[in-house]
Design goal:
The structure holds two protein chains of two kinds.
Chain A: E1 10-12, E2 19-25, E3 35-40, E4 44-49, E5 54-60, E6 67-73, E7 75-83, E8 87-92, E9 99-105, E10 115-120, E11 123-129, E12 136-141, E13 145-150, E14 161-168, E15 175-181, E16 185-190, E17 195-201, E18 207-213, E19 218-223, E20 227-233, E21 239-246, E22 252-257, E23 263-268, E24 272-277, E25 282-288, E26 294-299, E27 310-314, E28 319-322
Antiparallel strand pairs in A: 1-28, 2-3, 3-4, 4-5, 6-7, 7-8, 8-9, 10-11, 11-12, 12-13, 14-15, 15-16, 16-17, 18-19, 19-20, 20-21, 22-23, 23-24, 24-25, 26-27, 27-28
Chain B: H1 2-9, H2 17-26, H3 29-46, H4 55-65, H5 68-81, H6 86-97, H7 99-107, H8 117-140, H9 148-159, H10 163-178, H11 182-193, H12 197-210, H13 214-221, H14 224-227, H15 229-242, H16 248-259, H17 262-279, H18 282-287, H19 290-306, H20 309-314, H21 316-331, H22 336-353, H23 368-378, H24 416-421, H25 426-442, H26 444-460, H27 470-484, H28 486-497, H29 504-522, H30 535-540, H31 548-569, H32 587-596, H33 612-628, H34 635-649, H35 655-671, H36 674-680, H37 682-692
Helix pairs in contact in B: 1-3, 3-4, 3-7, 5-8, 6-9, 8-10, 9-12, 10-12, 10-13, 12-15, 13-16, 15-17, 16-17, 16-19, 17-19, 17-21, 19-22, 19-23, 21-22, 22-23, 25-27, 26-27, 26-28, 27-28, 27-29, 28-29, 28-32, 29-33, 31-35, 32-33, 32-34, 33-35, 34-35, 34-37
The chains are: A mainly beta, B mainly alpha.
Keywords (chain A): Repeat, WD repeat
Organism (chain A): Malurus cyaneus samueli
WD repeats (chain A): 200-241, 287-328
Chain lengths: 328, 697
């Protein structure tokens, strides 16, 4: 008889609004306090102290409009956040400061989270949905120089980009963008040439989230349907369907592969977190704690593998933090 | 300037070591270079042997080695951004590029090694790289820079035959830098684009020869061949058709470069056509050297390997024609090598254009050359990154119990009043819509308290989320409400049919609901708990569509047919379950309010005018209500009213309306007892008969 699924390690309450995005910053050496950043519908970014389980700071930079993406840039003092006020803010949090140092006006009205890629020390590429509904723009940060705009071919009818993932095979190689579109297709873009390398129709409905493992050249995407689609990238840089996995309930709002590529977690509209083994997509656990749609899942970046955590943020205004498969 | 000038000419004794040198090494680099070269000139002309004339060249070499050259380029680039003086730049350009010749002329045998071309130009390449780095930094800082002076330097160096030295430094570094950095790519593209046309050939040739691969070349040159005519000529004509000394790697670079971008692929196709033209030209085969023929064959095969299926499709016929011609003139040749070349190329073309059919096959002895040629075709175009999928051992992760993972169901409301209150929660709203029909039927008493309100909500209900069969669900709920509490709801609905501010859709919904409810009320078989309507329902639910009149016709025909049969069989057909006809008491409430107001147009709704579609639907509805009212008390009064209604509309222009009128009469004849027809409406009936008989008034 299999063990019953574990309970949350702890639960963070007090955002007083639906939680839309989570990001850990636990990689720093002692005495750095492990942190969890959360962005919520009321426009606040909360910085949670994972030792005390209390909010250290609440950042208000998006005019009380929903914050749907938060990422750190390098260390925990440099933060990027994206909100429904159509702005992407860069924060300086060093020495207790809470200042927005710079911001990008995206002019995009959708919910597409931006994607960051570190290309060199202090230099980042950021992919974001642009003002024209079907375009993705790549900026270099912190200079905000526009690198290129990725326009689908005329008549491609992809719709809006829904989710983005910038990556490169290894440091110094060409950056590549995977973008999930409204029509259910995933497109591989060569960022430097600004052209499509491959397109694969993975879903019938808009792609809500995707993640990619560049080591295995394999990625996974979820939509509002009942299936997860796993696809791979061959040597000719063509995307092809690898397999699909049927879910019990429809709707996936977020997918994250753990940094060690062993497991992945999905955030379900059915209020449940699902854990799968990444190699074969074997279902491992269904974590049923939340009472409303889960919006985001995130794995921590603890340098000590035993301390690794999983966090999920939900419409029920709670953040559940789990310790699962931390030993393996 | 004058100060530096005099300094340079000052005799050896008057030169305080450190300060004097620093003047030159930290002064404005352009000026310093001019002064130093001038000093060199004058020193050369007036110099007495051994009088310390070695100072300017010494300084000059220090100048070069301390990276002042890149400072000089930077200075000019900045001037250029602010529109500097072109003559001065031209002079500087000459001085920079011709510096080795200049110095060696002056110094004759005593030229320091740093001024040897093989040392100087790599140094200059390094300076260019440093400068580009500076430019990239300044672009990232948001500053604009002009790069054209560097392009001029590069062009002039290349045309002077020093490609090997300068590009040997530049190309490897730029290949690396452009790999992941788009800004560097842009700088690089700009660098080659700004080279003046007269020097373009040398530069492009240098890049093509030295790039480590097609991919790198594509990053270095961008779409240069599309933008620059000269570069296009060099790449697509000169290097392929006029020259034939380039190595296979260069060919692969060049053609691979053309294939890597859609804009350039059109060039690739054109190149292939031109190559094939040459290959299949009789005189070319006769008069050109075999080496060139081999070169062209290689180019053709590499081109073919880059072609995609649709592109081949687009030029299949041309390929076939040139293949036939080419084979003929190659086989005519007296040289075995040329014959064999023709065979290999023809085989390859036929392999590419015949995906399923038989392919050309010649008999010849394979040698290294043919094997090499064939290998080009087999090659898939190389891509930048190669992925490997490592095979891992089995998962060591133990699954948890997942038996609780069941389908999620939203709780539907249990009370009618909950449904009326409505909910912001869309999931709940969906569940409510889906459950409403059965909920209404289960709680008739509760529904009667709020029936009109509920009917009102349902009539105005719009689709909030995308639910499958929403229209049907809503209609089913409306019918349920109407059958549960017929009189007030029918009164409400019929009054709304003629009131203002409804869409045609809503008015037709009302008609559909009335029909369905009347049907349910009048048919005893619906009293069970069975689903009230099956296939019939969908055909009655008439969304506006072109063939709806046919549907109506069919339904009515079927009914009439069914009814007729029952009459014929007489007593043999027995209703198994008998129960009171619920429609009896309410038929009038359904019928009369509908027939009353059809000739009173309102501002938004004119049945006799442009809204004849609704009129047609109304007529059909009345026909069905008439038919369903069989055996009810009100049937005679209804029949009389209906005949008058038919009479008024008998010349309507819309055939759909007239069809409806015919079914009205049919159902009247079926529903109203014969004695009542004859007694109460003889006159109307005769009029109708003569109308139907085709008599005109």
């Amino acid at each position: 008889m299999a063990l019953p699924p574990p309970d949350p390690q702890f639960v963070l309450r007090g955002t007083s609004a639906a939680v839309h995005t989570l990001h850990f910053s636990c990689g720093g050496p002692e005495p750095d306090i492990p942190l969890l950043f959360s962005g919520s519908e009321n426009g606040f970014i909360h910085v949670w102290n994972l030792k005390t389980h209390r909010v250290d700071t609440a950042l208000d930079g998006h005019g009380r409009k929903s914050v749907y993406c938060v990422r750190t840039m390098g260390d925990k003092d440099r933060l990027l956040s994206q909100g429904r006020d159509q702005r992407i803010c860069l924060w300086d949090l060093a020495e207790g400061r809470t200042a927005v140092t710079d911001s990008v006006f995206t002019e995009h009205v959708g919910f597409c989270r931006c994607s960051l890629l570190k290309v060199a020390q202090g230099r980042w590429l950021m992919a974001m949905a642009a003002r024209n509904l079907d375009e993705v723009q790549i900026l270099e940060l912190p200079s905000k120089t526009s690198v290129c705009t990725l326009k689908p071919e005329v008549g491609a009818k992809l719709g809006m980009p829904m989710c983005l993932k910038l990556w490169q095979l290894n440091c110094g190689s060409q950056p590549v963008l995977l973008a999930g579109y409204e029509d259910g297709s995933v497109v591989l873009w060569n960022v430097s040439m600004g052209k499509t390398l491959s397109q694969l129709v993975c879903h019938q409905e808009p792609v809500m989230s995707l993640d990619f493992d560049s080591e295995k050249a394999k990625g996974i995407s979820g939509s509002s349907e009942k299936v997860l689609s796993i696809w791979s990238l061959n040597e000719q840089q063509n995307l092809q369907v690898y397999k699909t996995h049927e879910l019990v309930n429809a709707g996936i709002s977020d997918i994250t592969i753990r940094p060690d590529k062993k497991i992945l977690a999905t955030a379900g509209w059915d209020h449940r977190i699902r854990i799968f083994g990444w190699k074969k997509l074997r279902p491992l656990a269904v974590l049923d704690y939340h009472t409303a749609t889960i919006h985001c899942v995130s794995f921590s970046d603890h340098s000590n593998a035993q301390e690794r955590l999983l966090a999920a943020g939900s419409k029920d205004q709670r953040i559940s933090v789990w310790s699962i498969y931390a030993q393996t | 300037g004058a100060f530096l000038h005099s300094l340079a000419r000052a005799p050896g004794a008057a030169r305080p070591e450190g300060v004097w040198q620093r003047c030159f090494l930290e002064g404005p680099p352009g000026l310093v270079l001019c002064v130093l070269l001038e000093a060199l000139d004058s020193a050369g002309s007036v110099r007495l042997p051994g009088a310390g004339g070695g100072a300017p060249p010494g300084l000059l070499s220090q100048f070069l080695q301390e990276g002042r050259m890149s400072a000089l380029l930077w200075e000019v680039c900045q001037q250029q951004a602010q529109a500097g003086c072109p003559e001065l730049q031209e002079a500087l350009l000459n001085k920079i590029v011709c510096l080795p010749e200049h110095v060696s002329n002056k110094l004759q045998g005593k030229n320091p090694p740093v001024f040897f071309p093989q040392n100087y130009f790599p140094l200059l390449g390094g300076a260019v790289l440093q400068l580009l780095q500076k430019i990239s930094d300044s672009l990232r800082g948001g500053l604009d820079c002009s790069i054209s002076f560097v392009s001029h330097v590069l062009g002039k160096v290349c045309i002077h035959g020093r490609q090997k030295e300068i590009l040997g430094v530049l190309v490897p570094h730029l290949t690396d830098l452009t790999k992941s950095d788009c800004i560097w790519q842009r700088i690089c593209w700009r660098l080659v684009e700004c080279v003046p046309d007269r020097w373009m050939e040398a530069v492009v040739l240098g890049f093509v020869q030295r790039a480590p691969g097609a991919d790198a070349l594509s990053r270095l040159l961008g779409n240069l061949v599309v933008k620059n005519k000269k570069a296009q000529f060099v790449v697509t004509q000169k290097m392929l058709l006029l020259q034939y000394s380039h190595t296979t790697a260069v060919l692969q670079n060049l053609l691979g470069y053309l294939s890597l971008d859609n804009l350039r692929r059109t060039l690739l196709l054109r190149v292939l056509q031109e190559l094939l033209e040459t290959w299949s030209s009789n005189s070319a085969v006769k008069h050109s050297p075999p080496e060139q023929q081999l070169y062209i064959s290689k180019a053709i095969l590499i081109c073919l390997s880059h072609l995609k299926e649709p592109e081949i499709e687009s030029c299949r016929q041309e390929l076939l024609t040139s293949m036939m011609q080419g084979v003929k003139c190659h086989l005519d040749s007296s040289l075995p090598q040329v014959r064999r070349l023709g065979m290999v190329v023809a085989e390859s073309i036929s392999l590419k254009i015949n995906t399923e059919g038989p392919v050309l096959k010649f008999e010849y002895e394979e040698d290294d050359e043919t094997r090499e040629l064939k290998s080009f075709l087999a090659q898939t175009p190389p891509f930048c990154d190669v992925f490997s999928i490592p095979e891992d051992d089995d998962d060591d992760l133990i699954p948890y119990d997942m038996s609780e993972d069941k389908e999620l169901k939203t709780k539907a409301p249990v009370y009618i009043r909950d449904c009326i209150e409505g909910s912001e929660d869309l999931d709940k709203w969906e569940a409510t819509i889906k459950a409403l029909d059965s909920l209404v039927r289960k709680n008739p008493a509760a529904v009667r308290e709020v029936s009109v309100e509920l009917a009102k909500i349902l009539l105005h209900l719009e689709e909030k989320t995308c639910i499958e069969g929403f229209v049907e669900l809503r209609q089913r709920a409306q019918v349920a409400v109407l059958t549960t509490d017929p009189i007030p709801v029918a009164k409400y609905l019929t009054s709304q049919f003629y009131s203002l501010n409804y869409s045609l859709r809503q008015r037709m919904d009302i008609l559909d609901v009335l029909v369905l409810a009347a049907q349910e009320l009048s048919c005893p078989k619906f009293h069970g708990k069975t689903k009230p309507y099956g296939a019939q329902k969908t055909s009655i639910q008439l969304l506006p569509r072109s063939d709806s009149s046919k549907d109506w016709r069919r339904i009515v025909d079927e009914r009439i047919k069914g009814k007729t049969r029952r009459f014929n069989m007489g007593q043999s057909h027995v209703e198994l379950a008998s129960s009171p006809n619920k429609f009896n008491s309410v038929a009038g409430h359904f019928f009369f309010p509908l027939i009353q107001h059809f000739d009173r147009p309102s501002t938004t709704f004119d049945l006799l005018g442009e809204d004849h579609l609704v009129l047609g639907r109304l007529v059909h509805t009345l026909a069905i209500l008439m038919y369903l009212a069989v055996n009810t008390v009100a049937v005679t009064a209804m029949g009389k009213a209906l005949l008058e209604f038919v009479w008024a509309l008998r010349f309507h222009t819309d055939s759909y309306v007239r069809q409806g009128l015919l079914s009205c009469i049919s159902s009247l004849l079926l529903s109203v007892p014969v004695e009542r027809i004859l007694a109460d409406m003889t006159e109307e009936l005769l009029e109708t008969q003569s109308w139907l008989g085709g008599k005109t008034w």
